[in-house]
Write a structure and sequence with these properties.
The complex is a heterodimer. In chain A, strands 1-2 form a two-stranded antiparallel ribbon. Helix content of chain A is about 70%, strand content about 0%. Classes of the chains: A mainly alpha, B mainly alpha.
């Protein structure tokens, strides 16, 4: 949209306002995490201070050690992502190429499980997990995360597979590949961006989860968001540690998300907007 | 099935479908059974037949009705503001010539943040004794605790969700804007159309479907989540922010009425299935289900 009349200055100012609106809270959190406690607890904001790492040190210290929480987060989110990407790639390929009159219904059922409200899913899963002894286990959390990651992965991967030119697979078949070989050696490698995007988004979704973790985890399986929730107590909040922990939780996912930025629109709308 | 051996496509889908079925159909049936039972958790799980008691309870429960009201208000305001702001953001960013990619990358940072951290950060910023935003509001003449007043608490939790998810709408709209053919816009300019006329008659009709997809993606997530409210107000003050998922959670895990909570859950599920239906119908024209 090239427009000679564009008031560039106005656009610049508006763009700056958008950035302040989105970035100010994040920036304030990161800055506060380096402030000494007295500099945080002031009625009017402190702009100048001596930076300190004390809050980060407190998070590794004895009382509030977050390392076990981090380990649980990594395990549950990582396992769930790996399973979702693996099963989702197979399922997505199948869905993209399956031509049958009930395909519509199958696709709808898959997406409807993704859209199910978390609160309504937690109830029966809580009962089932209690029966199966999966409460307070990494396996339970992994499965819970899979309940929203898997349908997402199937749909998204199917959008990526639908974009692979059929001639590619046909050529491989002519050269003597079995269907599985054509999929594994030819089709799958061309969807590497799809695999990475699916993986990153599944990782972000499960890493950020609080609802499932707070319902199913116990002393042995609490995740980082749980650790953040625990820092809010009746006796008041240690904002220094909280901003530090918030920074630790948030930064890796921001970088992961930005790394797949090119495919984000496809990813977050599950392929709905591509080919527009 | 006409053939005895399932097709290659079916065999590829089978593992995923089996896992998904066990993660969704079994819980779904359990949820239905729970809704007709009194669920006892002490000393092993027991379901006692409650016939229609839970469902009957629903009819006379004014609290749940008011929670649905709050939910719809929350839903409408959140989606409305996110769509409007997101479109404005996209239009602004789209007009920026230099550094547009960097700008776009910075503008979408909030959506990767854990909602719980967004909620805690919101509490930090609006804390009446030390919050940055509370301080700014004091300068503008607003005293007091945002999360303590009924109206202001609802608006504050909405603002947090809006902050986190407006970038998604902006990003999708931006992609739509980039796909509008430039000659079309130039032709309108040649014909003497002003900026807003061009938007109204040329650009918006072109990106209508993209906007609808953005709206539906946000809608399905807005009914799913409740982390931000749980960590900020937990439904208070005086139920002002008690949207239906928060009510459900409280009914189940604080009052231990899991059977009745299931009834609330089934209604939520029905609502979200309607939403999913709309989503798939929009895509059906041209999209995944092609």
């Amino acid at each position: 949209m090239r427009r000679s009349t564009a008031p560039a200055l106005l656009v610049g100012i508006l763009a700056l306002l958008v950035l302040v609106w989105t970035l100010a809270p994040v920036a304030w959190m990161v800055v506060s995490s380096f402030k000494p406690t007295p500099a945080i607890k002031t009625a009017s904001p402190t702009w100048l201070f001596e930076p300190t790492l004390e809050h980060y040190r407190d998070l590794i210290g004895a009382g509030n050690d977050v390392r076990p929480f981090a380990k649980n987060s990594l395990l549950a989110a990582g396992l769930s992502t790996a399973l979702a990407v693996g099963l989702g790639a197979l399922g997505g390929y199948g869905l993209a190429h399956w031509h049958h009159k009930s395909k519509k219904h199958l696709a709808f059922w898959i997406i409807s499980t993704r859209m199910a409200p978390i609160a309504a899913v937690i109830l029966p899963l809580f009962i089932l997990f209690r029966q199966l002894g999966l409460i307070d286990s990494i396996a339970g959390l992994t499965l819970a995360y899979l309940s929203f990651n898997l349908p997402f992965a199937i749909w998204l991967m199917s959008a990526f597979f639908a974009d692979v030119p059929p001639s590619l697979e046909e050529a491989a078949r002519v050269d003597g590949c079995s269907r599985w070989q054509a999929f594994w050696y030819v089709v799958l490698p061309t969807t590497t961006p799809g695999l990475v995007t699916t993986g990153v988004l599944c990782l972000v979704f499960s890493w950020n989860d609080y609802a499932f973790a707070s319902s199913f985890s116990g002393p042995g399986s609490q995740t980082l968001p749980m650790a953040a929730g625990r820092l809010i107590t009746q006796g008041g909040v240690d904002w220094g540690q909280l901003t530090a922990l918030g920074t630790i939780i948030v930064l890796p996912m921001i970088f992961a998300g930005l790394a797949v930025r090119r495919w984000l629109v496809t990813g977050l709308t599950m392929g709905a907007v591509t080919g527009e | 099935m006409k053939r005895a051996i399932p097709s290659f496509e079916m065999r590829m889908m089978l593992p995923a479908l089996l896992v998904l079925a066990s993660l969704s159909l079994i819980p779904f049936v359990t949820l239905i059974v729970m809704s007709f039972s009194h669920v006892k958790l002490m000393g092993g799980i027991r379901f006692e037949n409650a016939a229609l008691e839970n469902w009957h309870h629903l009819l006379e429960d004014a609290d749940v009705r008011s929670s649905w009201g709050t939910s719809l208000l929350y839903f409408g305001l959140t989606l409305g503001i996110e769509m409007a702001l997101g479109i404005v953001f996209a239009l602004i960013l789209h007009r920026v010539v230099r550094g547009r990619n960097l700008l776009l990358a910075l503008a979408i940072v909030p959506m990767f943040m854990a909602p719980i951290v967004v909620g805690l950060l919101g509490r930090f910023l609006t804390d009446s004794t030390l919050g940055l935003y509370a301080w700014a509001l004091r300068i503008l003449g607003f005293e007091g605790d945002l999360l303590a007043g009924k109206t202001s608490a609802l608006l504050t939790v909405i603002a947090m969700d809006v902050w986190e998810w407006t970038p998604l709408v902006a990003l999708v709209t931006f992609a739509g804007l980039s796909a509008v053919p430039a000659p079309l816009v130039e032709a309108a300019a040649v014909d003497g159309a002003g900026y807003f006329q061009t938007l109204r008659y040329i650009v918006f009709p072109q990106i209508r479907r993209v906007l609808l997809v953005a709206l539906l993606v946000r809608a399905m997530d807005a009914i799913r989540f409740f982390d931000i409210i749980t960590i900020t107000t937990n439904g208070g003050p005086a139920d002002a922010t008690k949207i239906i998922p928060v009510r459900l959670y409280e009914t189940a895990f604080r009052f231990r009425e899991l059977g009745y909570a299931s009834v609330i859950g089934i209604l939520m599920l029905a609502f979200s299935i309607l939403m999913a239906h709309a989503f798939v119908r929009v895509l059906g024209e041209k999209g995944l289900t092609r």
